[in-house]
Amino acid sequence: MSRAVLSLGSNLGDRLANLRIAVDGLANALVAVSPVYETAAWGVTDQPDFLNAVCVVEDAVTDAWGWLWRGQALENAAGRVREQRWGPRTLDVDVVVVDDVISTEPDLLLPHPGTHERATVLIPWLDIDPDAVIPGRGRADALLAGLDVSGVRRRDDLELR
Ligand SMILES: Nc1ncnc2c1ncn2[C@@H]1O[C@H](COP(=O)(O)OP(=O)(O)OP(=O)(O)O)[C@@H](O)[C@H]1O
Ligand SMILES: Nc1nc2c(c(=O)[nH]1)N=C(CO)CN2
Fold first, then answer.
1. Which residue spans adopt a coiled-coil conformation according to this UniProt entry (predicted)?
2. Buried-most residue among 46, 81, 82, 128 (CB within 10 A)?
3. Does residue 53 have its Cβ closer than 6 Å to ligand 1?
4. CATH, domain 2-154, list 3.40.640.10, 3.30.70.560, 1.20.1250.20, 3.40.50.11750
């Protein structure tokens, strides 16, 4: 049994449909799905805005690696091709945390290393888990308080389920 937080992002093609591929594919494990946010790209900033969301999932048999593989299968289902780091993509599924697991394995870093500085993850995560904690980093609300949130805009006109 494990509970995980997954972040979803898309900035290519039909962005909402791509996020729905992920949510539909996780349906049997879904505990909560956040609102959708329109977000200015960080990293490589010269690319289209993203839609971002976060979901909490739980499953009796899926472990941390299992969430990574399920995420990668969903990226493939959305037609993702491996390209530039931080570049545009039809669907990105990152494993943000799995319970209180810490992993330094490069193929599965937990907690996901960028999380504490990404308002695009922390804001939707806090919507569905106001007491969210990043193991080794602290409370998500306290981390978010130090970040620029100006590029993150909630899209109440878009729903994932
Ligand atoms: N927690 C994690 N969640 C998803 N992928 C991870 C994680 N930790 C390591 N990886 C590895 O990251 C690689 C995928 O990276 P990807 O191309 O999606 O990076 P990115 O989305 O461009 O950047 P970032 O990881 O900073 O968001 C895969 O090889 C995967 O095994
Ligand atoms: N706003 C935003 N920017 C990004 C995102 C993302 O999900 N949202 N993902 C990236 C690659 O992981 C690179 N840049």
1. none
2. 128
3. no
4. 3.30.70.560
Residue 124, preceding peptide bond in cis (omega within 30° of 0): no
| Tens digit of each residue's pLDDT (9 = 90 or more) over 78-121 | 998 777 888 889 999 999 999 999 999 999 999 999 999 999 99
Q: Which amino acid is residue 50, in one-letter code?
A: F
Q: Is 50 in the pocket of ligand 2 (CB under 6 A)?
A: yes
Parse the chain into domains and list their residue ranges: 2-154
Residues in CB range of 42: below 8 A, 6 or more apart: 86, 118, 120, 151
pTM value > 0.95: yes
Report residue 118 as tokens. 């990404």
Q: How far apart are CA 63 and CA 21, in angstroms?
A: 21
What's the DSSP call for residue 60?
Answer: S
Separation CA 68–CA 128 (nearest Å):
21
Predicted confidence at residue 31, as pLDDT, reads: 98
Say what angle helices 64-77 and 15-25 make with each other, to 10 degrees.
Answer: 140
